[in-house]
Design a protein that fits this description.
Layout (H helix, E strand, L loop, with lengths): L15 E4 L4 E3 L2 E3 L16 E12 L4 E6 L4 E11 L5 E7 L11 E4 L8 E3 L4 E7 L3 E3 L3 E3 L6 E7 L4 E11 L4 E7 L3 E10 L3 E3 L5 E4 L1 E7 L3 E4 L3 E4 L6 E7 L4 E4 L3 E4 L4 E7 L3 E4 L3 E3 L11 E7 L4 E4 L2 E4 L4 E7 L3 E4 L2 E4 L6 E7 L4 E4 L2 E6 L2 E7 L3 E3 L7 E6 L1 E5 L6 E5 L1 E7 L4 E4 L1 E4 L10 E7 L3 E4 L3 E3 L4 E11 L10 E5 L4 E9 L1 E5 L3 E9 L3 E3 L4 E4 L5 E3 L3 E3 L2 E3 L1 E3 L2 E4 L6 E3 L2 E2 L4 E6 L7 E3 L9 E6 L9 E3 L1 E3 L7 E3 L4 E3 L4 E4 L8 H8 L20 H7 L9
Length: about 700
């Protein structure tokens, strides 16, 4: 047999070229060619047709065979084997499409079904390589790249109009060997149903796993891989591995239907960068290994750079059985139509980082961090996660306590889900419609979570936030803001209950608070813009030099200490907790509305300072008789208010009792009120508006508002 044999077919339309010792087998018969064979009619289209037979390229020890299909040529085959019979066998198939000088017909390898099957094996026992370029077409069925243990295969599709047409069947890269797929410079892989990258484990005679398939996938230069099957598994079984990179604008890996399981049993990485994208029409799971023997599977996904994206039609799960990570960086985005779940099952751990200005995760319905498993979420550097405030469901951090049975001891154990969420840096934000922290949907304790909001980071809520089961929310220059009125029937407050359940630190909380049963808010430099309602066991305790500033009302029972009050209104129907070591901000107002049942409204200790407060007392809705007395203050605080505005003819004793003075009424209650704030002349009239905020003195008098401070 001769080396470098050549077979040509088609004078004008191209050729099939061979080089090697055993260039081709057809149904186990070896064929060699040592001359040029021209078409019977030059210019006719007569493809080389083995559509009912199997074709092998590269057979036997140390054999290396190359087949080249030049522009206009076409090779038809039933089964295609490359690199067969030995790990040292190598087969190469080059499909070179049209060039500028050629007529506009593509070079083609096309596979046709035959009675025995129609598989394609690129690297069956040894090495196989396919290169499709310049608009060539590789049309196959039931595809395997790197089929047997120890084999390897590589397919490269490169250049605009170069195509691998999979003909609506499954694509497998790295079946039990090693597979490489490069799709470059505008090329396409299309018509895929399911795809398996790094597919099957390798076992020995004792069924012990000793290896597995592996895959390397590169999509760049505006190239695409597009399929529409029911499932895709990347790193499918124990000891398998797959690494995928999608790089550059227009580069895309997309499954329009079905789910994508990323690391469903093996170890995998996915890098989406420089404007590349991955899209799943249904769900996308990272580390979704849930079968026996897959406990060590890991998945790592990184989406980085402006324009880079991961789009998921329904739900995105990170750590659904084992350990998975997702990083969204430097202006990249993740979008999911239904929910994102981090740490989604018992024994699983998920970690998500969204960082960098412009980086974002848009979640359609709800976000869960630690749902039966352990979840960690970091949002930093101006990044953002958002769930629509008006339409989303309950999100949760640390939800579910699951009872599991040890298969060896048959003993039951309760596994508590764990969530950890950090929002860090100015512009960093998580926006949620409602939130459970360490609680289930019935608000009972279930799971546990710690939330850290630091350095200008913000948690924005559209409704109820519940904190239970010893969970904590720690602020260090962070912000919690309740956007009230999104849905009229939705409670707009933060409910903190249970021993150890806590919001603490410095920053701003713009929400009403409900504290009970050991639930607490503590802070040094913490501002609460809202009303605080306390039940037995609740605590509102400032710490350090700055304590807590409360701009709102305070009612109920509990422990209150080191609070700076802004404008504080107390109605006779309220019960006010005992106040210790607190004070009023300069210009602050304490307004007390008195009726016939008012008694002992405010109990303040000797360390409480009223010297900055402007006290306003009004009767509503009655005018008491001159014999009536109203004990308003108890405790040892000095009642040294900055100003006092009382109903005409009434006075406040040093012991805190409001009583009729017996003196003739002088100025009206309104006039005394205006004078108490230093108003005079035209500015003191009932219709005057000295601050220019649109609210008259009469209106501010009626509502107990300081007339010298503009209403914002």
């Amino acid at each position: 047999m001769k080396l470098n044999k050549t077979f040509r077919y088609g004078k004008r339309f191209g050729a099939v070229l061979f080089a090697g010792l055993l260039p081709l087998t057809v149904n186990a018969q070896f064929y060699t060619f040592d001359e040029t064979v021209e078409a019977v009619e030059p210019g006719a289209w007569n493809p080389w047709d083995f559509s009912s037979q199997d074709v092998t390229i590269g057979f036997g020890d140390d054999n290396e065979t190359t087949v080249t299909i030049e522009p206009g040529g076409e090779l038809l085959a039933g089964l295609l084997f490359m690199g067969v019979g030995s790990q040292s066998a190598s087969g190469f198939l080059n499909i070179v499409g049209r060039t500028a000088e050629e007529e506009p017909r593509s070079a083609t390898f096309r596979q046709s079904p035959m009675s025995g099957g129609f598989e394609t094996y690129v690297g069956y026992d040894g090495y196989g390589e396919v290169l499709v370029s310049e608009g060539g077409l590789f049309s196959t069925r039931l595809n395997y790249t790197g089929f047997n243990p120890g084999s390897s295969g590589k397919v490269t599709i490169t250049g605009p109009d170069s195509v691998w047409d999979v003909n609506n069947v499954t694509l497998r890269v790295g079946q039990r060997g090693h597979g490489i797929l490069h799709v470059l410079d505008g090329a396409r892989v299309e018509n895929i149903t399911n795809i398996y990258l790094g597919n099957l484990s390798v076992v020995d005679s004792n069924d012990e796993i000793i290896g597995g398939g592996s895959a390397e996938i590169l999509i760049e230069g505006g190239s695409t891989i597009i399929g529409s099957g029911s499932e895709s598994r990347i790193g499918n079984r124990p000891n398998t591995a797959a690494d995928m990179t999608v790089r550059g604008p227009g580069s895309l890996f997309e499954m329009t239907t079905g789910f994508i399981h990323f690391s469903s049993g093996g170890n995998s990485t996915l890098l989406i960068e420089d404007g590349g994208g991955v899209s799943s029409g249904a769900s996308f799971s990272i580390a979704a290994a849930q079968r026996a023997g897959e406990e060590s599977a890991t998945g790592e996904v990184t989406v980085t750079g402006a324009g880079s994206f991961l789009n998921v039609g329904t739900w995105l799960s990170v750590g659904r059985g084992t350990f998975g990570t997702l990083s969204v960086e430097d202006g990249a985005s993740v979008t999911t139509g239904e929910y994102m779940r981090i740490g989604a099952d018992v024994g699983s751990t998920g970690e998500v980082v969204v960082t960098g200005e412009g980086s974002e995760a848009n979640v359609g319905n709800f976000l869960q961090v630690g749902f039966r498993g352990t979840g960690k979420l970091l949002v930093s550097g101006g990044a953002r996660i958002s769930v629509p405030l008006s339409g989303g469901s309950l999100s949760s951090f640390g939800r579910h306590a699951t009872v599991v049975t040890d298969p060896d001891t048959e003993l039951e154990e309760t596994v508590i889900s764990q969530g950890e969420v950090t929002i860090e840096g100015a512009g960093s934000e998580i926006q949620l419609p409602r939130l459970l922290v360490g609680a289930d949907t019935d608000f009972d304790p279930s799971g546990m979570a710690n939330v850290f909001i630091n350095d200008g980071g913000q948690l924005t809520l559209g409704g109820l936030m519940v904190v239970r089961n010893g969970s904590t929310v720690a602020l260090d220059g962070g912000i919690i803001e309740m956007v009230r009125g999104i849905i009229d029937t939705r409670p707009d407050h933060i409910d903190i209950a249970g021993e150890g359940s806590l919001i603490a630190g410095s920053g701003i909380i713009s929400s009403d608070l409900l504290l009970s049963d050991g639930g607490a808010v503590t802070g040094d430099g913490l501002v609460v813009n809202g009303n605080v309602v306390m039940a037995a066991g609740g605590a509102l305790n400032g710490t350090g030099e700055n304590g807590i500033t409360l701009n709102g009302s305070l009612s109920g029972e509990g422990d209150v200490e080191n609070i700076t009050f802004g404008d504080f209104t107390v109605a006779s129907s309220q019960t006010v907790p005992a106040i210790a070591g607190s004070r009023f901000a300069e210009g602050g107002t304490l307004s007390i509305v008195v009726d016939a049942a008012t008694s002992g409204l405010i109990n303040a200790d000797a360390a409480t300072d009223f010297s900055n407060a402007n006290l306003i007392i009004i009767f509503e809705p009655f005018e008491p008789g001159s014999s009536a007395t109203f004990p308003l203050f108890t405790g040892e605080a000095a009642l040294n208010f900055a100003s006092t505005t009382l109903p005409a003819g009434w006075e406040l004793s040093e012991s805190g009792v409001l009583q009729f003075s017996g003196a003739e009424p002088g100025d009206s209650a309104f006039e005394q009120w205006a004078s108490g704030f230093g108003l005079s002349g035209a500015d003191a009239g009932p219709d005057a508006n000295p601050t220019g905020d649109g609210f008259s003195n009469a209106q501010k008098f009626a509502f107990g508002i300081n007339p010298t401070v503009a209403v914002s």
